[in-house]
From TrEMBL, chain A:
It comes from Andreprevotia lacus DSM 23236. It comes from the Bacteria. The chain crosses the membrane at residues 23-40, 81-103, 115-133, 179-205, 235-254. It is a multi-pass membrane protein. One of its GO terms (biological process) is transmembrane transport. This is Sulfonate transport system permease protein. Residues 73-254 form the ABC transmembrane type-1 domain. It is found in: Cell membrane. Pfam families: BPD_transp_1. Belongs to the binding-protein-dependent transport system permease family. PROSITE patterns: ABC_TM1 (PS50928).
UniProtKB/TrEMBL annotation, chain B:
This is Sulfonate transport system permease protein. Belongs to the binding-protein-dependent transport system permease family. GO terms for cellular component: plasma membrane. InterPro entries: MetI-like, MetI-like_sf. It is a multi-pass membrane protein. GO terms for biological process: alkanesulfonate transmembrane transport. Residues 83-267 form the ABC transmembrane type-1 domain. It comes from Andreprevotia lacus DSM 23236. The keyword Oxidoreductase does not apply.
Amino acid sequence: MSDIAVSRHPLWWLHPAAVPKRLRGWVIPALLLLLWWAAFRFNWSDSALLVPISKVWQTAERLSSSGELWTALYASLRRDLAGFAIGTLVGLLVGAALGLSRLLEGLVGPTLNTLKQISLFAWIPLISMWFGLGDAAKVAFLSLAAFFPVVLNTFEGIRSVPPELIEAARVFGYRRDQILRRVVLPAALPSIFTGVYLALIYAWLATLGAEYLLTSGAGIGNLLTDGREHFWMDYVLLGIVIVGLVGFALNWIASRFEARLLRWRGHSTAQF
Amino acid sequence: MSTATISLPAVPEPATSSTPAVHRNWRLPWRQLGRLLLALPVPLAILAFWQAAAVYEWVPAQILPSPSAVAATFVDLLRSGELQSNLLISFWRVLWGFLAGAGAGLLLGVGMGLSPLVKDYLYPSFKTFAQVPALGWLPLLMMLVGIDEALKIVLIAKASLVPVTLNTYKGLQGVPTRYIEVAKVYGFSRWQLLRKVVLPAAFPPIWNGVRYGLTHAWLALVAVELLASSEGLGFLIVYGRQLYQLDVVLAAVVVVGAVGLLLDLALAQVEKYLLRWRRDAF
């Protein structure tokens, strides 16, 4: 810290640059926690909304030992992944078909693009009419949420394969399936993966929406709804933490997977 | 056309330069018409099938009202002014929420993008905050601010804040160092550097963030109106659903899609206008 010019000032330690670089990110969370703790410790408010941190922890322990938390998490994750898998699979197939055939693109592309504009959650009332309020409706909705980003990015990925690559492959006498497998697929893969990645994020968002709106069965969304309806702040805060952690974990898995899948690309872009 | 050529005496031969333009003017509509003709069969087939399903009662009208019933309901809703008033309410919510969220996002993104110190302090907290989707914050917000207008504005603002902030920050970070070095060699002042180099270079990703922000704002609006509202397009959908009037639901869904499309098109037009200087490069 000796290299900081402001250090001679009596209040030098108040300067933002006085905090070591690695600790800077922790300052705001620490201040918030302190504020939370102080609000409780000094009785700034006796609102039912102000629960101590320890109570959130106790609730977490209670719900996890009773299994309630795990049931909810399992139910949410299962439908999230089921919807994601169906939506992604159909999206990949449709996206690839549209990308490879100009005729199909002309026929179906505009319709898909129009349907895409309908805000995702607006489908829920319709889906609930057609599929009820159970898991079938939720999975159908999640598939829809995952479908659109995958279709678009698969299509874009295939269409943006440089024509020179395909010409070069033709010169080398590649057959059609060889061109697809060795040229088009690898070139389109990064974009396809972006779509799958987005689908994962959207599916998780949609899981919450589906559980709020199609209130039946267990799930993290139902945990949050319960907490809100009964004014249990500890439930709500716990739910938010779990939603964040699951989102984080899904992101992390996807980025690991992507790094592995795209290993052959090397790190050329990172070097600049 | 002719006035332009007259006012530009520098153009060497107006006759030769105008022939390909005319040629193109003749050809363009045909291609678009062809595309339109190709795009029509699928929606028409869906509509025809849908109408047939309703007419021959393959499915009960309560589950799937015919397209003509939906159209009639749409006209009714328009005539009574119900659609317009709800649309207007939704529109203002999105506008205010989006302006608040995108404004704050631009500030945050610029702050983090230009100052490493600000970035060190805020970025980890921001990332954590962004990890929970807007819908995850909804129950907490309902408890804190109630279910009035404030809830909708805050939620929409949150939904648009995250993409705008991230894209602004990444856009500013992504400005190639070479550009900045060149500008420094030319003796640009700090302000000139920002105005003439950093901003134009970072603009496309920032604008992308704004577009995502608006899309997310619209998404959040519909979600929050479905969950907690007594007015707006989302409410119209819930209302129709509760009364088992799927024609109302479908009419409102069509409007939701149309507005989403219009918003996207409007922003694409603005982008074209703002980036008109870029066309010269290609």
